[in-house]
Hints:
Mean pLDDT of chain B: 94
Order of helices and strands of chain B: EEEEEEEEEEE
Radius of gyration of chain B: 13 Å
Oligomer: heterodimer
Low-confidence stretches of chain A: none
Shape of chain B: globular
Radius of gyration of chain A: 14 Å
Number of strands of chain B: 11
Strand content of chain B: over 45%
Number of helices of chain B: 0
Number of strands of chain A: 12
Largest interface: A-B, 21 and 21 residues
Mean pLDDT of chain A: 94
Helix content of chain B: under 10%
Order of helices and strands of chain A: EEEEEEEEEEEE
Amino acid sequence: AQKITQTQPGMFVQEKEAVTLDCTYDTSDPSYGLFWYKQPSSGEMIFLIYQGSYDQQNATEGRYSLNFQKARKSANLVISASQLGDSAMYFCAMREGRINKFYFGSGTKLNVKP
Amino acid sequence: SAVISQKPSRDICQRGTSLTIQCQVDSQVTMMFWYRQQPGQSLTLIATANQGSEATYESGFVIDKFPISRPNLTFSTLTVSNMSPEDSSIYLCSVLSRGETQYFGPGTRLLVL
């Protein structure tokens, strides 16, 4: 089974609107971390936000928030007030327990329209 | 977070040749990794670079094709050997910082003709 599933290959959003990028995960380990990365066309991977499995509150970083629904095993990224510079690939990733291995989803390409 | 640099940022190489990619971190880190990202694909872990010992390779990757060195806690190299067009990818090094989060270098874009 896939460890990380991103079902949206591509998304469009109007500038200044909010957008949700979906991510579901699969693990039986009670301790895990969930991450979102942004990859612009330049190719670098930019860390956006982190959620630990034991965190009680949803993580937020500026315009980014992570909608963590543990029972559903989902970790959706919400970008508020989209900007043209948000156009990029977005990858969801998971680290299980204390294993130093990250599992990446297939990514979602976000296009922000002016 | 750690600041990571990679050299070269991009290269165009002929098949059959080898390219060595360097990764430099501005602070000592325990864990360093090398990833490959083929065009239009997600990231695939090649290996964990271990300081002072042989790298730990993932299934499908071998030392003869992707030799890795890590002489200290701030530097590592990845060599792509005997290249073919199928090796055209972005190669990324990464580190674990603050215990939990993985940070990436800017990547090396490789095109093999």
